[in-house]
Model the fold of this input.
Amino acid sequence: MELSESQYQQIAHCLPRQRGNVRLSNLQVLNAILYVAKHDCTWRSLPPRFGPWHTVYTRMMRWAKSGVLDRVFEQLQHLQIIQIKIEIVQVKIEAVPLDSTVIEIHTDGTGALRKTAAKPLASRAPDGAPKFVWLPRMNAVL
Done:
């Protein structure tokens, strides 16, 4: 899915004007963004014909933050150049596991007193202490 020059001219007014010595045209960047979206690949695996991946990624992030991409894709859909399918999925999260190997806190950071000697618990499970802790979270519907 790549935009042709005539399709690009229909949405060119949505994009910022290029100034100075630019390496990639807005059309090349848009086609690169569409390629990544369609093929679900990483930026680093972008084919060389689209230019340096970092340049494309940087411009895409700038456009996303300033709302340019929203306007462009809205215009592309309005003109029926591309069709975007949006699937609404409801997700309900009730608990989040935290693995003790992921979150490490220095002994001084907990505010607890230091242990002087190891004291095994009488009711300890045969396999030892639990490996993770379940933290309750608010239910969120996306």
Remarks:
- The longest strand covers residues 95-99.
